[in-house]
Amino acid sequence: MWWLLKTICLVHVIGNILCLLKPKPKNPEANMNVSEIISYWGYKWEVYEVVSGDGYILPIYRIPRGKNEIMDSSPKTVVYLQHGLTLSASAWILNPPSSSLGFLLADANFDVWLGNSRGNNYAMKHVYLDPNCKAFWDFSFNEQIKFDIPAIIDFIVNKTGQKQIYYVGHSQGTLLAYGAFATNPQLAQKIKANLALTPVVTTRYLSGAFRTIAYVHPTVIKVGRGCVVNNKPPLTSLASLRVLKPLADPNELCGLWARAGSYHFRDTCSSSLTPGTAMVHAERCA
Ligand SMILES: *[C@@H]1O[C@H](CO)[C@@H](O)[C@H](O)[C@H]1NC(C)=O
Ligand SMILES: *[C@@H]1O[C@H](CO)[C@@H](O)[C@H](O)[C@H]1NC(C)=O
After folding, report:
1. For residue 51, which ligand has an atom nearest its CA?
2. Tens digits of per-residue pLDDT, 117-149?
3. In sequence order, what are the beta bridge partners of 196?
4. 35 lines ligand 1 (CB under 6 A)
5. What is the Cα–Cα distance from 29 to 39, expressed in whole angstroms?
6. CB of 237 shorter than 6 A to ligand 1
7. Is the minimum distance from the CB of 155 to ligand 2 under 6 angstroms?
8. What is the 3-state secondary structure (H, E, C) of the chain?
9. CA atoms of 68 and 58, how far apart (whole Å)
10. How far is the CA of 74 from the centre of ligand 2 (A)?
11. pLDDT at residue 56 tops 60
């Protein structure tokens, strides 16, 4: 019996060592951006730059038809997908087509549009503000609700000639929808249905261990703001404390989440200007 266990153990240990030495297989999509991933799976894509009322330039991706669909000029049902905190348009297409909502909807004959929140790695442009400056980052959920969602939806409605579209939000994307449709009745008229995945509005009712974050004093958060540690991506550096700011005041709809938004780890690593470095520059601009 013992020799059997020993042998199993030895095989296991040697196996693990060999595995560590072997280069890890890498997903070919690991270094691809949104349009490359869409093309990789054999779908067509389009990209449009929507300018928000306060000047942020937001690239909106479109998967106009299913993989095996022949070009057809008849109008299709439009669905707009708005990603959540720390994500980007890629959130909807990261899995294979059989399990990515963006591709599934395209194959189900929808005209699929994928948004990007201001300040994510795809949306680092403004008509006159430089992302290296603090002013670029001086926004909250409120501005996204007031400017970004209406600009995007108006653009899509206009472009597709549809009177109404479907809105699918994930997490922060649901918060933006609730805010935008509740405060802008004309905009709400353009929405056939608002579908909320993991809906969130406030951190007030957080419970469990996460609740403790809500009690961190704003001063502590401020110390973390603008700091960067050895140029590490924001999720691992002190700069990530910026992300916690909205949690410091559970009632505050502060948009830092969006800023951190779409700092998709993979995207962050392939970007020359990570949010962390952006913050260092921000301090210089101030
Ligand atoms: C995505 O990658 C392609 C190919 O490298 C490049 O041409 C394109 O500009 C990239 N798009 C973005 C938004 O970075
Ligand atoms: C709608 O589209 C037309 C034609 O492309 C354009 O001239 C107009 O400015 C657009 N309006 C909005 C609100 O985007």
Report:
1. 2
2. 999 999 999 999 998 888 898 888 899 999 999
3. 169
4. yes
5. 11
6. no
7. yes
8. CHHHHHHHHHHHHHHHHHHHHCCCCCCHHHHCCHHHHHHHCCCCCEEEEEECCCCEEEEEEEECCCCCCCCCCCCCEEEEEECCCCCCHHHHCCCCHHHCHHHHHHHCCEEEEECCCCCCCCCCEECCCCCCCHHHHCCCHHHHHHHHHHHHHHHHHHHHCCCCEEEEEECHHHHHHHHHHHHCHHHHCCEEEEEEECCCCCCCCCCHHHHHHHHCCHHHHHHHCCCCCCCCCCCCCHHHHHHHHHHHCCCCCCCHHHHHCCCCHHHHHHCCCCHHHHHHHHHHHC
9. 29
10. 20
11. yes
Over residues 251-259, mean pLDDT: 34
**Which bound ligand lies closest to the C-alpha atom of 150?**
2
Residue 237: pLDDT over 70: no
Say whether pTM exceeds 0.70: yes
Closest alpha carbon to 87 in 169, 20, 206, 21 = 169
Please name the residue whose Cα sits nearest to atom 5 of ligand 2: 159
Q: Is 92 in the pocket of ligand 1 (CB under 6 A)?
A: no
User: Does the Cβ of 36 fall within 6 Å of ligand 1?
Assistant: yes
Ligand 2 binding pocket includes 159 (Cβ within 6 Å): no
Compute the distance from residue 275 Cα to the ligand 1 centre, in Å. 19
Span 89-93, average pLDDT: 97
Alpha carbons within 13 angstroms on the beta-carbon side of residue 90 total 26
